[in-house]
């Protein structure tokens, strides 16, 4: 697994205050997205993953700090966490008064959502599902990013997920394309995460000019004041734009 990642954060300033945990699985079974290298963050064995996940989850404070929502991510999908880790998550929620969890994963696992709803619902915990979409421009999403959602419409995704991730700042993208993504998403999804692209080896190039244009645009001003949208920029080290940082940052 990748060492020195930030695996726990609490966010009291968001429109949805919550604690974030970055856990590990045995790896991402899709693992083909050209913009992502977080799939390298995986456990060598189920046991080593469970041990790390238990340590991370031990930091969750819940009602002690006035939070009742836990945001769970890993370098794969929620369906690829071990059953031991899932039990640890559920018991952590019970012990700390967490009543809602957010689980993030790939669209290909959508039919499994009902099992997670039932599993956590047994303890009175509600589940919000989040899907990585990156963009609704199918040419960029499938031909360039290799996301694995060919022919999938925004309304198809909305049948299974209340929350999505979008991405901006790579070559081929423009403010107009981002506006289109936001306009498509807002009527369908309760919440949107917008990540500013971080370049990875062998992936699309980071378009610094496009990112600077975004931060200087009216669109940015609109989005930063929209409680349904959160912007994350892990390369914004000095936080000059007052946006969030992804958990997948090195310390």
Question: Could you write a compact summary of the structure shown?
Answer:
Helix content is 29%, strand content 19%.
Detailed description of the structure:
- The chain is of the alpha/beta class and 251 residues long.
- It has eight helices and eight strands.
- The protein has helices at residues 46-57, 83-96, 113-121, 138-144, 154-158, 175-185, 208-215, 218-224, and strands spanning 8-11, 18-23, 69-74, 100-105, 126-134, 163-168, 191-196, 229-232.
- Strands 1-2-3-4-5-6-7-8 form an eight-stranded mixed beta sheet.
- The longest helix is centred in the middle third of the chain and has 14 residues, at 83-96.
- The chain is globular, with a radius of gyration of 17 Å.
- 37% of the residues are buried.
- The mean pLDDT is 91.
